[in-house]
Design a protein that fits this description.
elongated, about 0% strand, 7 helices, about 180 residues, single chain, about 65% helix, mainly alpha
């Protein structure tokens, strides 16, 4: 951290958040060890998001299908709700997707496309939308996995961290890959 910064009167000026970010950016750009540290942070953030997504999915199954704690939807001997939960989930997904498509002119970028065409830049809000769609589908009984939500959220977190640090294109692409992994 800079300790020789003065405010003009000889007193030390307070270190701001911007000073910290600028110092971290120069450390990351100057040493691959620091980039690896940021990649580890990205992986940890992605892992926490995976745990959260899985927990939300389990709670949706318990709430909507009357499952007990630890029970799996695929292992339930009998479902009391019948077909109304998947049908309502499909209608809700279709309606929210239609409404969102009316407001958005650009499509959501997935991690592969982000790295191949956009230098690792991704929208966190678009990625959270994909995660919402995945959770809604899975939570309502559709036989879709949560992997799309996992990869999209982790990659977007890596892209956001790299964007905050204003990393070079290749370094940003590394963080997107770490988030997806």
């Amino acid at each position: 951290m800079p300790t020789d910064v003065t405010d003009g009167s000889g007193r030390r000026a307070p270190v701001t958040g911007r000073d910290v970010i600028n110092r971290l950016r120069s450390l990351i750009r100057g040493s691959e060890v620091w980039l690896v540290g940021l990649a580890v942070l990205t992986g940890a953030a992605a892992g926490l998001s995976v745990a959260l997504i899985g927990t939300v999915s389990d709670h949706l199954h318990q709430l909507l299908f009357g499952l007990g704690h630890g029970d799996r939807l695929s292992g339930a001997p009998r479902l009391t709700q019948g077909v109304w939960v998947p049908a309502a989930g499909g209608l809700l997904l279709g309606l929210t997707s239609w409404l969102r498509a009316r407001r958005r002119s650009t499509p959501t970028v997935d991690p592969i496309e982000a790295n191949a065409l956009h230098g690792g830049r991704m929208s966190l809000s678009d990625s959270l939308w994909v995660t919402f769609q995945t959770l809604l589908s899975n939570g309502c009984g559709a036989s879709v996995g949560l992997e799309a939500g996992y990869a999209q959220t982790g990659s977007a977190l890596g892209s956001r961290l790299g964007g905050m640090m204003r990393l070079r294109r290749n370094d940003l692409r590394v963080l997107v890959g770490c988030g997806a992994a």
